Amino acid sequence: MTDRAAPEVLISQEEIAERVEALAQVIAPRIDNDTVAVCLLTGGLWFAADLTRALWRAGRDVRFDALWLASYHDERKSSGRCEVRADLQRPLIGRRALVVDDVLDTGLSLGEAARLVKDAGASEVLTAVFARKPWDKPRIEPDFVAWEAPARYLVGYGLDDEGKSRGLPYIGAMD
Ligand SMILES: O=P(O)(O)OC[C@H]1O[C@H](OP(=O)(O)OP(=O)(O)O)[C@H](O)[C@@H]1O
Ligand code: HPA
């Protein structure tokens, strides 16, 4: 097994936990217990798991669903296309949805997810990402952002390098 160089730590696990807790306090008044948290698979799992538990501590027991989208396919640049690998499971008609993802980069994935969720009948679509990369003209402005990330290739806390490193408890840069 070849060990790769450790990524440069950009945000520690302690700071991630603090930011998730703080974000849940901001989101809680904007949602109710009928809100469906829609986790974007695969990378959004780690943030969605932490955020839904922080929302519970903030007094919100949300429903949970997932939407599996893929656009990077082991590359470090977006393919420019977003493939739907698995659709929503739960009825969204008339319910508020909170789409949850690890990172907003070009905004293609979050924009596509918001459109799919709206088309599924959600009464309101809110979006939350842990990290937002800087773009002059993002395709979508998320409603909630935990951390403003630099324009670097990120790994950890759901973010992967060819499937690896999603389980790092911190976020680091690989470039
Ligand atoms: O704003 P964008 O440019 O669309 O990039 C963000 C998306 O890219 C990653 O997904 P990816 O397609 O790599 O699939 P993954 O969730 O399995 O990592 C990440 O999880 C976001 O969903
Ligand atoms: O910086 C990133 N790292 C991992 N996956 C990603 N998907 C979009 N941007 C990134």
From TrEMBL:
It catalyses: GMP + diphosphate = guanine + 5-phospho-alpha-D-ribose 1-diphosphate; IMP + diphosphate = hypoxanthine + 5-phospho-alpha-D-ribose 1-diphosphate. Keywords: Glycosyltransferase, Transferase. Residues 15-140 form the Phosphoribosyltransferase domain. This is Hypoxanthine phosphoribosyltransferase. Gene3D superfamilies: 3.40.50.2020. One of its GO terms (molecular function) is glycosyltransferase activity. SUPFAM superfamilies: PRTase-like. InterPro entries: HGPRT, PRTase-like, PRTase_dom. The lineage of its organism: Bacteria, Pseudomonadati, Pseudomonadota, Alphaproteobacteria, Caulobacterales. Pfam families: Pribosyltran (PF00156). Its EC number is 2.4.2.8. The keyword Glycosyltransferase applies. The keyword Transferase applies.
